[in-house]
Amino acid sequence: MRRWGLQYRGRDTRRLHQIGEIFSMAAAVPGKKYKIIKIDGGCRLNSRLCAMGFIPGEVFYVSGASRGGPLCVLVKGTKFAIGRGMAERIQIREV
Amino acid sequence: MTDKEITIALSGNPNSGKTTIFNNLTGLKQHVGNYPGVTVEKKTGIVDYKGYRINIVDLPGIYSLTAYSLEEIIARNFIVNEKPDVVVDVVDSSNLERNLYLATQLMELNAPLILAFNMTDVVKKSGKEIDIGLLSELFYVPIVEMVGSRGLGSNELLEAVIRVVNSKKEKKVEVKYGEEVENEISRIISVLKKQKVPTFNFDARWIAVKLLEQDREIIDTIKKASGPKYSKVEETVSSSINHITSILRDTPEVIIADARYGFIKGALLEALKETGSVKLDRSEKIDRILTHRILGIPIFALIIWLMFQFVFTLGKYPANWLALGFEKLSVLVTNIVPQGLIRSLLVDGIIGGVGGVITFTPNIILLFFAIAVLEDSGYMARAAFVMDRVMHKIGLHGKSFIPLGIGFGCTVPAYMGSRILENKKDRLVTMHINTFMSCGARLPVYILFAGAFFPAIAGNVIFSIYLIGIIMAVIMAKVLRATRFRGESDPFVMELPAYRMPTLKGILIHTWERAWMYVKKAGTIILAISILMWILFTFPMIGGNYSQDYAGQIEEIEQSFKSGKITSQEYDGEIATVEAEMAGERLAYSTAGRIGRFLEPVFRPLGFDWKMVVATISGIAAKEVIVSTIGTLYSIQETGEQSDSLKTALYKHYTPLVGYNFMLFTLLYFPCMAAMVMFRKEAGTKEMLFQIGYTLLLAWTMSFLVFQIGRIFI
Asked: Span B423-446, mean pLDDT?
């Protein structure tokens, strides 16, 4: 199913989160700041994410997102578009 | 005195202004090639400075030296294997923490490094101050301040290069990764030493770090070189990884990256004074509109529409001038060179073939101008962001939309434009389906056939062909993704760089490179293919083997004209009719005609006769040639797509079903030879052959189904 791009149909991940709750970046809401808690993409992807500044402890800002499409996040002074599949491997917490 | 030759490698993050600095240093003395065996572009340039001949290699823009992407491996291997005299790392000084990550890795690699702090004007404007002297001392690396967009700092950089070449590097900074990791590093180093594992050009500490980071490229190299001894190393490394993970609750590669950032933060704490707050206001405001949830796609469509207007509407005028020029040239040659083979070769073969391809040069120039503006301004990344959701559904990348859109104009620049896709699989799939975006040269064929068979609904019929093309593209994208280009595509992460005013110099250089590459191709391989096509359509010559006594007929007409029986208008018409019939017989007698008849059985199930096969073959030269070939085959003197006599002839010979089928076949089989030459250049011979093979097979199958099923109903 994944290859056919159907995996997100009908699922709304944008529910309200409680303070301190840890969840995946795919559920982040535009206009808020979050802290990265853990990245979990295997060593290759982790190295890549770290090099781009997505590192545990880092605070980032979500500047845009559309349902099903990529997220737009600001981390270490640079804006990135990050696909949902990738975002699901990053655990975050609201700050 | 002979110049001393030195080589410097230019590295840096994407969007750090590296290319601008490269252009400033080398001007037009650039050469664009590919790294051996891969499609990553390799730019080199030469600058002569104070008795030194400096070769500059522009490495691909990368975030780090891990082996994540092909670009990163290429950059790392170049630095390690080619050992450039100096590595210049271009750093966006308005974003030091991120950019110094790569610099830190270059320091770890112990490369002879210079840091070029670019965009220092932006830093000052934002109210920050960098203590360059202090940073330079902390890193033991010379630092040069530059403003690439205004051409400042190039000489200072070259001075620094010469200083580094002439001095020995005495000290090296060492990044510490924290006690736990350091202990494991020493453990691995001692195992490497004890097992006498070869470490090539690297030092043992670096290898140990890479092993902890699970760098597959390094692991494979070491494994291959050390054979059975590697098992001991592997054991140690995996126990180290387990140890670190259990104590620090994160994997080594994350811990090590964290330590690098820690090292950078430590240095910046002392050297960077922030007097104002960090701002990304302007970009953020523009992004609010351009990447808006709802407005994003319409704005994108508008920008792309404007781009096509710019490329094809504006480009039409110079293209027409060129076409007119070639027409004049063929008239000139016709007048100078006596009738015969040489004239036919020059006019029909060379000027017709190469001229037809050269005529598109203005479009190519404008297209790459537009792409360069979109890329350098930062919009291209937004376009990909906006389109990703839609394109993702058919297994493509957001940026794929751009070459696919261009394909409606001409497939050749579309293939060239596919370079904006970094991922190889995305690029190849996009290229393989691009042919279904029906190009401008196929339109005359549709106009002719739809006009001949469906005069009342010609517009709708042509639209249906375009639509079938798009549907085929979507289907084939999914099929290719599921079969040949299966597997994990790169997860979508892409930088959205701050909006910037593009520099004219950068855009012009970029445009020039592409246009020149195109013209060069037209002058070499396309020339050769044009001659080959001419030979196919000319030899063997019919000589005196005409079925009728045409010479006698001509003589008769001339006689009746001289005796005043017919007017000069009638005379012209009759002569043209006879000559057209002769041309038709010549073509039927040629190799192409014979191939057509030989292949007829293969195409019979599609409803095609040998004339259609010959027309299809001629379409390889350029699809619009199909129209004139059919004209010649039906011995019709006026052969435009609007020609009524040609339409009548077609209507007489074929059923509407066959007519439609021919349009379908023309849509689906691979585009012209110029496009295939470009395909080979971009993707290699194997992929080009695959493209030719699968589109032919698809075209045949689809036409077969349409004809056989259609026959039942009609």
From this structure: 88
Q: Which two tokens stand for residue B490?
A: 């790169």
Do B56 and B8 touch, CB atoms closer than 8 A?
yes
Task: Decide if B87 contacts B112 (C-beta within 8 A).
Answer: yes
Contact A72 B280 (CB under 8 A): no
Better-predicted residue by pLDDT, B273 or B141: B141
Residue whose entry in the numeric block shows the structure tokens 């195409």 = B603
Output the pLDDT for position B639.
60
Compute the residue count for chain B: 714
DSSP letter for each residue of B16-48: SSHHHHHHHHHTT-EEEEE-TTS--EEEEEEEE
Smallest Cβ distance to B278: which of A3, A70, A77? A77
The answer to whether the complex's ipTM is over 0.85 is no
Query: Does position B490 have pLDDT exceeding 70, yes or no?
Result: no
Q: B120: which DSSP letter?
A: H
- pLDDT number for residue B114: 94
Separation in Å, CA A92 to CA A29, A62, B207, B494, B675: 12, 12, 32, 20, 48
Region A70-78 average pLDDT: 89
Query: Which residues in chain B have Cβ-Cβ distances shorter than 8 Å to A80?
Result: 493-496
**Residue A22 sits at the chain B interface (C-beta within 8 Å):** no
Q: Mutating which of A9, A25, A43 best tests the B interface, going by the most B Cβ atoms within 10 A?
A: A43
A51 touching chain B per CB within 8 A? yes
- In angstroms, the CA B614 to CA B432 distance is 25
Contact check, Cβ <8 Å, A64/B381: no
Which positions ≥6 away from B310 have C-beta within 8 Å? B366, B370
- Residue of A47, A66, A85 lying closest to B68 (CB–CB): A47
Mean pLDDT of B145-164: 91
**What chain B residue is nearest to A65 in terms of C-alpha separation?**
B293
Per-residue pLDDT band for B397 (boundaries 50, 70, 90) equals confident
B154-168, B420-434, B526-540, B662-676: which has the minimum mean pLDDT? B526-540
Element holding B532 (H helix, E strand): helix B525-538
Query: Do the Cβ atoms of A64 and B291 come within 8 Å?
Result: yes
